[in-house]
Design goal:
Length: 252
């Protein structure tokens, strides 16, 4: 039995469990979860030549093969949401307020897994370092694009930026609702990792904060204004600070 089939998710710990039931989606939570999983694996498979192929054409490391990266991501996902709820419990679940947080959490786990794999991704077989630009934000964007094509569900990685430095990809600029959510996340006293979900017309919107990890500092740390490895100016973030959020929009 692989990690996907035996892993568990504690949805009851995710907020809004006490709210009245929302409208249902076209598919259940298990379907959307599977489509996200497939999207992650397909993205990793298509980028193996870039991130995991040596000069001789052989894989650099087993750790960067799609199933291995996904297993690592799922372990992060499982740790973040708990082990008291089996994945099978979202089979038949069509309540959007329960589905949206799971999708955001799984994408976030994949981003973290890619952040942790940066040394392996950028290290060549001869020990030299070559930046591949396959960073968490890029991985997330590719997965989101594929996932949306499969399901029609809209997702976004967005941020307010910091100081003079705004969102790096204009396509990820926050809309009015996302801006308000980000400001709440950054306000004093906000509970760590807590998301926000609201019903908006015929849609349900959910946002989950993205935090700066140690691996993010090379691009987003200090000194402020210094260009990072990919040419963007650093914003001066510290580990644990909120960089942005993952936004999910589900039809009701």
């Amino acid at each position: 039995m692989n990690v996907f089939t035996r892993a568990t998710v504690f949805l009851s710990l995710i907020m809004f469990s006490a709210l009245p039931a929302m409208s249902e989606t076209a598919h259940d939570g298990e379907y959307y979860f599977e489509q996200m999983r497939i999207s992650m694996l397909e993205t990793l498979t298509e980028n193996q030549k870039l991130i995991n192929t040596g000069q001789d054409g052989a894989p650099k490391t087993e750790k960067l093969k799609p199933e291995a990266v996904y297993t690592g991501a799922y372990e992060i996902f499982e740790k973040n949401v708990g082990k008291d709820f089996k994945l099978s419990q979202i089979k038949g679940e069509t309540d959007v307020k329960k589905i949206a947080p799971v999708l955001a959490e799984l994408l976030q786990a994949g981003r973290i897994a890619i952040a942790r794999a940066q040394k392996d991704i950028n290290r060549e077989a001869d020990g030299s370092v070559k930046l591949k630009k396959f960073i968490p934000a890029v991985f997330g964007s590719l997965v989101i694009r594929r996932f949306t094509e499969k399901t029609g569900i809209l997702m976004k990685q967005t941020t307010l930026g910091r100081g003079a430095y705004h969102v790096r990809n204009p396509e990820n600029a926050p809309d009015e609702w996302e801006t308000a959510a980000l400001k709440k996340f950054m306000a004093s006293g906000w509970e760590p990792n807590k998301g926000i979900g609201v019903s908006e017309g015929n849609k349900y919107r959910y946002a989950k904060p993205i935090y700066i990890k140690k691996g993010c500092l090379a691009c987003h740390g200090v000194p402020v204004g210094e260009k990072g490895p990919y040419g963007h100016p650093k914003e001066g973030y510290k580990v644990g600070e909120i960089r942005g959020c993952i936004s999910v929009t589900l039809p009701k």
